[in-house]
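Query form — protein Radical SAM core domain-containing protein

QUESTION: What is the three-dimensional structure of this chain?
INPUT:
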Amino acid sequence: QGSARRKVTLSTVGVTPRIESLTRDFPSGLRLALSLHAPTQELREQLLPVAARAWPLQALMQSVRNFEASTGSGVLIEYILLRGVNDEETHADALADLIAREGLQCAGVNLIPYNPTTAGSSAGYEVPSDARCKAFRARLRSLGTPNVTIRFSTKCGRDSASACGQLGLRSVS
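ANSWER: The structure tokens for Radical SAM core domain-containing protein are given below.
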């Protein structure tokens, strides 16, 4: 049980009451992945309107700091890159600043190139180029952000709408 528990990572869009209960109920042995996708409250409200309004960035960062302090485990930040939306150098600067300003231990930043969905495409979201993803990663690294990776492997399954972030029902037969 001990070794299995150490390998559990819970992913969240930032449900602060649940992060707080995890901090209280599992003070060790649980890792947290935060699907952040935006370095500012304003952009979070565009990309994750329900989560961002219910659990504002400032309160979310407080919960993340409390989790890290209690568990001794840095949070993994997951960030889907959307061409022209959150993949510019200014966004990388803001993300690095957020991590530093909030004093996050940060286990790392996992950059995930957007995988098209019907809903995302109708909202105008597009896949960033590999070069843009690499430039974003390089910028974060140059600003001292630890363990920045790009998950290009998440492209697998795009053609069948089963890649990372794509799982959804197209139609009912």
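ADDITIONAL NOTE: The chain is about 45% helix and 15% strand.
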